[in-house]
Amino acid sequence: xxxxxxxxxxxxxxxxxxxxxxxxxGLNVAVITKVHPVRSHSNAAQGxxxxxxxxxxxxxxxxxxxxxxxxxxxxxxxxxEVMCKxxxxxxxxxxxxxxxxxxxxxxxxxxxxxxxxxxxxxxFVGAITGSALLHVLYEQSIKYDxxxxxxxxxxxxxxxxxxxxxxxxxxxxxxxxxxISAKAVVLATxxxxxxxxxxxxxxxxxxxxxSLAMQAGAPLMDTEMIQYHPTTLSGSGILISxxxxxxxxxxxxxEGERFMENYAPDYMELASxxxxxxxxxxxxxxxxxxxxxxxxxxxxxGKQFIEERLGYLQEVALEFRGIDLSESPIPIxxxxxxxxxxxxxxxxxxTNIPGLYAAGxxxxxxxxxxxxxxxxxxxxxxVFGRRSAVSSVEYIKSIQDLTPDERLLSxxxxxxxxxxxxxxxxxxSELRLKMATSMTKGIGVWRNAESIENTSQIMKNIRGQLxxxxxxxxxxxxxxxxxxxxELEFMIDVAESICQGASARLESRxxxxxxxxxxxxxxxxxxxxxxxxxxxxxxxxxxxxxxxxWQPTERIY
Length: 557
Ligand SMILES: Cc1cc2nc3c(=O)[nH]c(=O)nc-3n(C[C@H](O)[C@H](O)[C@H](O)COP(=O)(O)OP(=O)(O)OC[C@H]3O[C@@H](n4cnc5c(N)ncnc54)[C@H](O)[C@@H]3O)c2cc1C
Prior knowledge:
This protein has 15 helices and 19 strands. The protein is α/β, with parallel strands linked by helices. α2 crosses α3. The protein is globular and about 65 Å long. The model has no long low-confidence stretch (mean pLDDT 96). Flavin-adenine dinucleotide (FAD) binds next to α1, β2, α4, β7 and α10. Flavin-adenine dinucleotide (FAD) binds at residues 9-15, 32-35, 40-42, 44-49, 129-130, 153-154, 188-191, 200-201, 204-205, 208, 239, 338, 360-362, 375-378, 381.
């Protein structure tokens, strides 16, 4: 058995920021990750990170209001206040650690505009912001000599006497399975994009942490809030960052019209993502698209500007579509990008289970509500990653050491072995594709009672078939076939919880737009949906939204 004070599951930005803080606070910290840390999905973030810097004449309250309006008033306003107040310090600290942010003409930190905000407060490193941040935090983790279980896969959390005291995981490289004991655990496992197909997310974004938490008894919140990003390449689902529109790109339909004028005349292309995605889908549905797409037009920005500020996007466009952005518009459509919902936590990342914390995309604090603003997620990972480690310190100091029961490890070993031993059956890839395409069809930009119910039934059927899946590779070394199956088990939990949330919420708010109930209903639904696991299956209830000073009003862009 391995032993640590604090075990962090996930080595993306939330996990590494939590880990660095844990060491600074004097804890024995370990990080566990199913891929090399810099291959975490945070690496793919392009556009930037939001912060209201006071020396720019910016005001955190302005950022908070934009975030709350963006969330369609579903975000908890105390959490948004914390995030926006701490943003400036968090950003400068990243710079001090070594992030080389892009500069403006005066040599100061440069900004670009992002959607849902009138003020340009998105700080960036070209179009590789996430990669730059992640590499710097990884350097810090080496400096602090953190223990990293690299390419280890967590299958279960250990719960003893009502509290979390570690996790069970296996080394993907050797198959060796271990119980890792810890006084507290932070889940920082990232998003669940692959529950949908296509998605902008990496193949590793399978919502493992949401399922691990739910299985341990922690509730998930607002899981129906799935963000469809307005600009993804058709087919592959690859993201074309909002940085393009932030830097001036237009959206046009098949007739060459900047159609956002009809939907969001004030903010145009930079309205909130849910608003822009619905506008695009309406254009496509009403026949003003081409092959299910509308177009992103950068031609007027000029070749030099595109290559300097958006070089990575130019590369993607050339490589995947053979299109030079300075010469032709590129076909795009809304695509699944982010899950606003997640493991319910307080302002310090604590869940309802002693010893269990969550931060980053897997968590729901809740700062994004029904729709996340672009560039607020990187901020969320940094602010709440740090806070979760700080709050775990007090808890760790207050508890008695517990030695987890080793029998839990043998039970989990037998469970995994019994999966490997299944002689024949279906392949997990078949079910994975069926699950993910059905989710996109039924829980898409539009949804209604019928589509949600159908999808829910499909997920139940797929769950029923999981015991028929077999793993072809019977070996121990790099058994990615086994990993895929275990991920599918996690994803089905997440998919069902999304259907539960979507079916419960009888209104349209933010990313959850029901064609059968098209308006927002603050009287009955200014509420979070909460999905919990019980012996009978998943239950849904609601809880109140925290309002501090911003009363809900009509949301016009
Ligand atoms: C293409 C793209 C572009 C984006 N651009 C931006 C942007 O410009 N600005 C912005 O604010 N946001 C952006 N986002 C969103 C943002 O990048 C993510 O929400 C954020 O980086 C998530 O960070 P994280 O630390 O929570 O998780 P991740 O970075 O996804 O890391 C998850 C970690 O958990 C580990 N893990 C998961 N399951 C297990 C398991 N079972 N066992 C062991 N380890 C496990 C993984 O190995 C990984 O290390 C973008 C997202 C995408 C997909």
